[in-house]
Please model this.
Amino acid sequence: MSHPSGSRPAPAPPALLVPLAVAGLVVLAVGLFLDPTRGMSALLAAGFLATIAALGALALLCLFLVSNAGFYITFKRVLEALALNPVGVVALLAVLPGARWIYVWARPGATSDPLIAAKAAYLNLPAFGLRMLLFLGIWGAFALMLRRQSVAQDADGRVQHTQRSVALAAVFLLLGGYSLSLASVDWLMSLQPHWSSTIFGFYTIGSTLLTGTAVAILAVFWLRREGRLPEVNESHLHDLGKLLFGFSTFWAYLWFSQYLLIWYANLPEEISFILARTHHGWAPFFWGNLIIGWVLPFLLLLPRAAKRTPARLVPVAVLVLLGRFLDVWLQIAPATLSGPPVPWVELGALVGIGAAFAVVFFRVLATAPLEPAHDPYMVESLHHHT
Model:
């Protein structure tokens, strides 16, 4: 059915990752010292992106489980290691001490605003911190439980582990979607407490699925290139490419739906979100987000060969991740900054936290064999479209 468990250990992190992580985090620290508001905004953007990268990989794993998919087993451990990555969690928790720099409702005297005062029972720092711990704890618990079932199956080969994983995945998809919607309201929407959107939770879910798919493609490609995942063939890449294509279009649909509803209704409390992102120098970033996040990936991934060829698929995955960071940053920065700055602090946060995420991914990946032993779908995955 498969090679002996542990016959191909995970590779060590590339040597360049640690210096990149240190350099990026130093730049972020300097930015925090010089301009705490801007530094905290960059930290929140990079931390949120790292969090939804892990959460998106966990969501993919659960979607594959509940749909009885078999093609992904050859790279299942990649999804598990991504889902267990705690770098985004640490970054988000680091936002809490400096929350007053970016969240208007957390500042002294904020309740003089009648609308903020009406929301004070929900929007206050103790409740905000407790909800953050709850959301992150739920996601981490499910990632850990699924990993334990997977590793236990290596040892005893019981199919019951797969059945339990399917049950856990079904519960997670319900709790995860609901909790992510609430988290997006807390961490992003509340930056502009006078604005609200009923579609924002779905928008964040679409972004999360897209981010997780892009990160999974990059991780699978690297391990395949290093000879650690030789069973991953063009058909596996094709399916991941189709998911990237589909989730990009799903995200664009939600982007357009939110924009259209706000533009058409033209209500003062809603249009402020669009106005803040299409004036004062933000417009090129606003429209560039749509181009990077959907137009270019759509055109580049249309040909079948593009989804099967690493040289064409991987650059699109990188482009998508850059688009995800731009999208998250645009949800944060116009609410906290007066205009778009030269993005050296933001790039430092992206590089530092991104490189740290990659280092930890390789460390977590090494805690279990790369190839799951005794998985009942392994044969199907090994012969996927061959």
